[in-house]
Specification:
With 407 residues, the chain is of the alpha+beta class. The chain is built from five helices and 22 strands.
């Protein structure tokens, strides 16, 4: 399962309880003290070469302090500061605010107590209304309207539903959504389209298929758990644990590995002797998601990887000479791609594959089907791991691989 940190909207509930207990007991809990003393809340350390204004907040001597009066550069002056109260610690620990701006207002506003606009700083926002505007901005505590972006592009209308919790990180220019949680609604699949600016005009989905979720997509790109498919078959199967499936992927016949009565040879996919045509009944993306979604061709994988750079979780480029292009984002290992044409981004996770009743290489290797036939045994697709990336790979057709649709 995905690791949860203090910036995860689900984990906030735990931190919220921790803070409320501190306020109720009028004493900081040990966990909150640990966060404060490590400066995990991310406030700037006091500097002797910086001028400060009244209201500025700094980290000094393992605590947070607020200036009560202006101070010029120089040594620490305890007469011009006051240490945070328990309630103030609570407010900045959560960095949480509620946005109630109207659905069709392009500039969203939210107030977060004791907020300071810092590069790489994060906030947690509950959006009580949907965002149905393009080029939406967010103004946090009157620090100015900044663009809201997701996966390297401006936030499309329809992605944020009512009562959506989002964690956003400031990169110096824009607020980037890094985690999102919708308790009562799933994103509109039409809002999942990522335009990488490719010459063919093909657009990629931002997430993989998961038939157990509303809309048929994973809730976020940063997951291992999803639906897996054998090539040419539209029935998806999700893992039953971190290492197993209830379903048996089987082989082509009894001579194949893992045969125990559910061989691939008896499935519709085994009858194919060529590529899966667009809209054909064997196209798992079209069958489960509807038009215009479909499986990508092998040539479309090649086009995508010919027009990207590999990036780290913070958006900095990975050295092109480096063989291992894998990175960890939100606790999930995979490839983070940025278009060299328009800067849009995609993430592919190392979700492994299904073979027999086992889930192999979760968190180590990634495998994705294309619609391109290779042989009576194999089909083409994307493979990647620490040893490299191959968008022209091929695998046994009876393996369970992930699907990333296109349109």
């Amino acid at each position: 399962m995905k690791k949860r940190g203090t910036n995860d909207p689900v984990a906030i509930k735990t931190l919220d309880t921790l803070v409320k207990d501190s306020v109720r007991n009028q004493a900081l809990s040990a966990s909150l003290v640990n966060l404060i003393e490590r400066n995990a809340l991310g406030f700037p350390p006091f500097s002797t070469v910086t001028d400060y204004a009244a209201g500025d907040i700094v980290f000094y001597d393992r605590r947070l302090h607020k200036f009560t009066a202006a101070k010029t550069a120089g040594a620490w002056d305890s007469t011009k500061v006051t240490e945070f109260s328990i309630k103030e610690y609570a407010a900045v620990s959560l960095r949480y605010g509620i946005c109630t701006t109207g659905t069709y207002d392009a500039e969203k506003t939210v107030n977060i107590p004791h907020f300071m606009l810092l590069e790489n700083g994060t906030i947690n926002v509950l959006f009580t209304t949907p965002i149905n505007t393009e080029n939406t901005t967010l103004n946090v505590s009157l620090t100015g309207a900044k663009p809201i972006r997701i996966l390297g592009q401006n936030l499309p209308a329809g992605v944020i539903k009512a009562q959506t919790y989002a964690t956003l990180a400031y990169d110096g220019t824009a607020w980037n959504i890094v985690n999102i949680f919708c308790p009562d609604a799933q994103f509109d699949p039409a809002a999942l389209v990522v335009d990488m600016g490719l010459p063919s005009g093909v657009k990629w989905a931002s997430r993989d298929i998961d038939l157990t979720k509303p809309g048929g997509f994973c809730e976020t790109p940063f997951v291992y758990e999803k639906s897996f498919f054998s090539w040419g078959n539209i029935d998806g199967h999700n893992p039953s644990s971190v290492s197993a499936f209830d379903y048996n992927w089987g082989g082509v016949n009894q001579a194949e590995p893992w045969y125990d009565g559910q061989p691939y040879g008896s499935t519709p996919g085994n009858t194919l002797t060529g590529n899966i045509a667009v809209g054909e009944a064997f196209d798992a993306a079209r069958a489960n998601l509807g038009a215009p979604w479909r499986m990508p061709t092998n040539a479309e994988f090649a086009e995508l990887f010919a027009n990207i750079r590999y990036i780290n979780a913070d958006g900095t480029p990975i050295d092109s000479a480096q063989t291992n292009k894998l990175v960890t984002v939100n606790g999930v290992v995979g490839l983070y791609l940025e278009s060299t044409i328009n800067g849009a981004r995609l993430f592919f996770s190392c979700s492994g594959y299904g073979g027999g009743r086992s889930w192999y290489y979760r968190g180590s290797y990634g495998y994705y089907w294309s619609s391109t036939w290779n042989s009576s045994r194999g089909a083409r697709g994307l493979y990647f791991g620490s040893g490299g990336v191959n968008p022209q790979d091929y695998d046994n057709r009876y393996y369970g691989l992930a699907l990333r649709p296109v349109q």
